[in-house]
């Protein structure tokens, strides 16, 4: 068999595979088949801190024919829902979690980006913030730790110079 025939066969098989993947993925999307990280049958607690629990619930809107996730914040003491976040389309939803050590939380969405909710303790509610006002997820680093990091970087840089000069 010539090289040209082999190349054509490989190209045809590759194209057939791509078309098959495209067709299957569209069938899955049209039928609404998803493999979510949440349960369909009942609301589920997904993140918890000392005061609040985040609950997500799968919903289906018959009129719009769309699946979506409702996210609630429940007070751990009273057991009451104290906040409801904007719903997220189920196929784009990637989870919700509290920012460590706070009552702020993030709702991860694959299509329009993440939603950040900052807790206002005076009003006892959450407000959606834009990306520029995002909560600082990195812990504060002391001056002493920064100094140690700089020293490590300088030592590594010096070691790299020594390795490069051995040639």
Written description of the protein model:
It is a single chain. The protein is α+β, with helices and mostly antiparallel strands. Helix content is 31%, strand content 32%. It contains 2 helices and 9 strands. Strands 1, 2, 3, 4 and 5 form a 5-stranded antiparallel β-sheet that branches. The chain has a 4-stranded antiparallel β-sheet with strand order 6-7-8-9, with no helix packed on it. Strand 6 and strand 7 form a beta hairpin. The longest helix has 29 residues. The protein is flat and about 75 Å long. The two termini are 50 Å apart. About 4% of the residues have low confidence.
Features:
alpha+beta; 5-stranded antiparallel beta sheet; 4-stranded antiparallel beta sheet
Layout: helices, strands, pairs:
Blueprint: H1 3-31, E1 44-48, E2 52-61, E3 66-75, E4 81-84, E5 88-89, E6 93-98, E7 105-109, E8 115-120, E9 125-129, H2 143-165
Antiparallel strand pairs: 1-2, 2-3, 3-4, 3-5, 6-7, 7-8, 8-9
Would you summarize the structure shown here?
The chain has helices at 3-31, 143-165, and strands spanning 44-48, 52-61, 66-75, 81-84, 88-89, 93-98, 105-109, 115-120, 125-129.
Distance between the termini: 50 Å
Strand segment count: 9
As a whole number of angstroms, the C-alpha radius of gyration is 25 Å
- The H/E string reads HEEEEEEEEEH
Mean pLDDT: 76
| Biggest sheet overview | 5 strands, antiparallel
Structural category is alpha+beta
Low-confidence stretches: 35-41
Which geometry do the CA atoms define? flat
In percent terms, what proportion of residues is strand? 25-35%
- How much helicity do the residues have? 25-40%
Number of helical runs? Answer: 2
